Amino acid sequence: MLTIPWNSTTGWGTPKIQPYAPLQLDPSSTVLHYAPTLFEGLKAYKGKDGVPRLFRPDKNMERMNRSAARLAFPTFTGDNVTQLIKKLVEIDADWVPTDPGTSLYIRPTMIGTQAGLGVGASTDVLLFVIASPVGPYYSTGFKPVKLYATTKDVRAWPGGTGGYKLGSNYAAGVVPQQQAAALGYQQILWLFGPEHRLTEVGTMNLWVGLKGTDGVLELVTPPLEDMILPGVTRDSILALARDHASGKRKLAGLPDKFTVSERNLTMPELVEASRNGTLAEVFGSGTAAIVSSVDGIGYEGELVKVPCGEDGLGDITRVMLREIVGRQTGDIPSEWSVPVDTKA
Amino acid sequence: MLTIPWNSTTGWGTPKIQPYAPLQLDPSSTVLHYAPTLFEGLKAYKGKDGVPRLFRPDKNMERMNRSAARLAFPTFTGDNVTQLIKKLVEIDADWVPTDPGTSLYIRPTMIGTQAGLGVGASTDVLLFVIASPVGPYYSTGFKPVKLYATTKDVRAWPGGTGGYKLGSNYAAGVVPQQQAAALGYQQILWLFGPEHRLTEVGTMNLWVGLKGTDGVLELVTPPLEDMILPGVTRDSILALARDHASGKRKLAGLPDKFTVSERNLTMPELVEASRNGTLAEVFGSGTAAIVSSVDGIGYEGELVKVPCGEDGLGDITRVMLREIVGRQTGDIPSEWSVPVDTKA
């Protein structure tokens, strides 16, 4: 594990890479009481050449610095921490698995560590990075999930912190998730406002494919604003989809007539699209699963049907999975893929 | 410190009272990543007889169990934990200070401790209680504070967790508080919605005194719903004020014509009351300060004036402070005051 302490008087301390071990925290440490904590998630993938590659670590560092500022934590030079993460992956290179779909999951975290029960800016912060090999998310093939659209619990709100990757956005999601599971659904679909605007799926960004009357396939995701997490996979899908739509780089499997929109959709609009046959597909995106197909949404006592291919993937979902995995493993050359030099 | 571990398979473990010491936490402990943490704050006061007294610990235990359920943590028998807290205070009796206004601050906390980066219900939880002597909040007399009514950041929202005492409600308040301080204000006044509804003050409940055209003094606080923390001091002030209003127990210093309302007020209504002279006073309430008087509110570029007595207290604030402190120290006999038997 990598640790870098910070103190408001002495600044950043010396980074250390050391064996995984428990953290010793004073019982009054602020993180245990007021939840000053933020995290990131990224993966190292071994390609056919045996080289571990990070996927867009600059995006994680950029988002981590935004989160840090929101918690009155110190910010840092993203490239420097990326270098240290590369060093950690280099040391742990034997732990990066090689089977298709496997990777080393990397978890950068920052917590407020000073002792004292006053609510205020952190005077002591620990940045630490841990890692763990993870298996393929879809070890038994692609299984689309059913979502429960809750009209009771609300994940994020304007003026809140839903657009930052803070620990405090996650704890309250567990009980709604349990309630959805008890009703037979795998994930929560988070709505907002009296119009039941679609926002996120569980801990993933949300995507909807809509067939326009003009024969154009539209890929829709909610605009970032301050309620939507700026996902790295979200950004990657947007870039790939826009390049296809503009003709800059066409993707096999997507129709020529294709547009991409960052705009809001409501549940009533989705219900209507399901009924009149213009709903093409729905999926979530995130670092853990990359994409996750949806084949139904429980909403106000009814199951809204969502089309899904026989392989468990919608057309856009299938193409995006292929294109992103290709760039993660190095099979598709891309500046998004950052190799770790294990011979240094 | 008191510690009680819980595991989803084995249930509650044996409570231990042991010397204050760091907690050893796996770096992947859920509390450090997804913020499953809740806390309470209560105080032990030594009366003139030298006996430490807890103030309404049953209310803290009730609220703590509500918070625990909201985080999918185990619940517990409040009376049992109160007994253990009494035992802790008994052992720490020499640490309970005796000067007027001083007390032993007691912090019950629950955190999710299991190792693992999945977001889900906690399988391991630690309930711990720490304590620290605290000085008088107003060591240099009563200084009214100026509030900054922010129209940018929002503390809580319908369908969120603002009505539960979760750690996750606190981390995001630090930056707005810093911004208010930079503008010369001591605390944030949290607003909600386009109508700028008043909700809370910093980490305190909010109270407004209004002079009615009929000569009746009205004490107003926002209704609990799901955005307002159910404060123990809030509940105590409501009970005292209602008993005065109904004539059940009159309080010297308050006018006979007096009503109490749990209802919403907006900033435009407060501005109008300040202008037309019907605003009597504004104060916050909480365990730390008991009450905190306000003498001005910065709102949309203007300073809204709030009346305040020459002693730094409004009429209602002064009476409530006296009545609550009297019950905390045992000077006013009350079932709210729970003595700790230090001779057992």
TrEMBL record, chains A, B:
Q: Name one Pfam family in it.
A: Aminotran_4
Q: Which cofactor does it need?
A: pyridoxal 5'-phosphate
Give the top-level enzyme category.
Answer: transferase
InterPro entries reported for this sequence: Aminotrans_IV, Aminotransferase-like, B_amino_transII, BCAT-like_C, BCAT-like_N, BCAT_family
A biological process from GO: L-valine biosynthetic process
CDD domains referenced in this protein's UniProt entry, alphabetically: BCAT_beta_family
Recall the GO molecular function terms of this protein's record. Answer: branched-chain-amino-acid transaminase activity
One GO cellular component term, please give it.
mitochondrion
Return the SUPFAM superfamilies for the record. Answer: D-aminoacid aminotransferase-like PLP-dependent enzymes
The UniProt record lists the EC number as 2.6.1.42
Q: Can you tell which superkingdom this protein's organism belongs to?
A: Eukaryota
Q: Which residues carry this modification: N6-(pyridoxal phosphate)lysine?
A: K165
Q: Does the keyword Transferase apply?
A: yes
Question: Any idea which UniProt keywords this protein has?
Answer: Amino-acid biosynthesis, Aminotransferase, Branched-chain amino acid biosynthesis, Pyridoxal phosphate, Transferase
For this protein, the record's NCBIfam families field holds: ilvE_II, PRK13357.1
Q: Which family is it part of?
A: Belongs to the class-IV pyridoxal-phosphate-dependent aminotransferase family.
Question: What name has this protein been given in UniProt?
Answer: branched-chain-amino-acid transaminase
The upper taxonomy is: Eukaryota, Fungi, Dikarya, Basidiomycota, Pucciniomycotina
